[in-house]
Amino acid sequence: MSVADDEVEVLIVGGGPVGLTARGLLERWGVRTLLVEKRRELSPFPRSRLVNTRSMEVFRLLGLAAGITANAFPPQFGRVRFRDTLHDPDFASAAMVGVHAPIPESPVTGVVTSQDRLEPLLLAAADTPARFGAEVVGLAEKADGVVALLLDRERGTESRVRARYVLAADGANSTVRQQLGTGTTGPGALAAFTTVVFDADLSRWCADQPAGVYVTAHGSFLPLYPEGGWAWLAPTPEDPERADWAGLVSRALGPGAGVRAEVLRVQHWVMNAFVAERFRHGRILLAGDAAHAIPIIGGLGMNTGIADAHNLCWRLAGVLRGWAGPGLLDTYEAERQPVAHQTLRQAVANTDLMFQAQSLRREQLRTSGAAPSTIRLPWSERYFAQLGLVLGVTYRSAAVLAEGNGDSPPSESDAHYTPTADPGRRMPHLWLSRDRSTLDAVGEWFTLLTPDPARWERQSAPAWPLRVEALTGEQAGLCGLSAQGALLVRPDGHIGARWQDGPPDGSALRRALTGITGAASI
Description:
The protein is an alpha+beta fold. Helices cover 27% and strands 27% of the residues.
């Protein structure tokens, strides 16, 4: 049975945080979208736990940051604690930088929350259609678009959707990626895990020492919501169908705990580690876990996908509205694939470092008559101090106009972040007024930041969405600008071009926008 076709500009495949964020961003650009998700509802599992600083900046743009923070844990939960059992004292701990306390480099603070609390807020943030229970079972690329065949397995109905572009954010086991035949590189499947969602009163061991994660020798315990609820994360046993999950959780709490867990839900999953060989196949683009599966240690996976969506959506809007050439979409892979590889390396290293901490503890317990009260973590500040990776990414592509000899500045180390206004970098956070950041000046337009707005407003560039914002002389100096200099900031908040000493001629801005967007005919 076939039903009538739909026609949209962008078909979004996948109703997780990445697909929902893309839906919200594209709606702000006025792009007609349809989101399809093969599940019949949003996931009831907590899944991703950490919303980092950069993701919160994106959600601030969408007007969601305050609501997400209100539903999340308070900042003191931005910490990982290591214990022999949940009711033992810490033998190590690590703060989540940018989550456990505000940082001067951003107007927002990240949070610990559960994905099942985040997704409803993202779904409600846009009014464009979202169809649950619709699985993409076929894709046919045409000269002017893509035809997707959708199957509702419960009803046994099929439908077709025509779209100018497809944004596939359908997870690590992406059916779209598989249909395209796109391969992956990286370790692949690392291990099978089970998440058990349960109720129990564990406050006697945790209330005075809050954390987002308690790592023990018998699995990790995660508080789910400020009002209660827990998850236990551990390797999947050999016979999961016969497992006594309540008993396993109770034993993992340790001898003498005296707590019986009330199991609510159980989910089995595989920790994957790979990056897709291609992020673009014609009019079909991969994002989130469909493009890169990142191990959970360090909380990088979902956040990397949200950054994908932020990077991609302005490009799609530009091509669809005619102020960018189709080649601009090639720069999405050029910018985001290296970030995915760098993030994967960091997440795999995080996983190794966590196992090292546990191994060191087991060796202490084996060789010492009495276990030392603490150990020195093997990663020092590298485990969750990842601002260089979160805020310090440097994009290198045709959508960034390099200065001088054309060389781009190197990316930050994963741990350290130094704000800089070099082309390719995220615009540094500076307060334009009491409650308005330079990052708030970014939106569905290019932003020109300069201490001399009158001079730059004489530049003609009517074909592109553009706003001019004033910087103070002090702010200009921090950005490496003279009194006539300017920064051209892309809609994703990254600097596309910089003129340190003012415009060389009356067409400098138009040439820069033409170069960044690939719109040679404008």
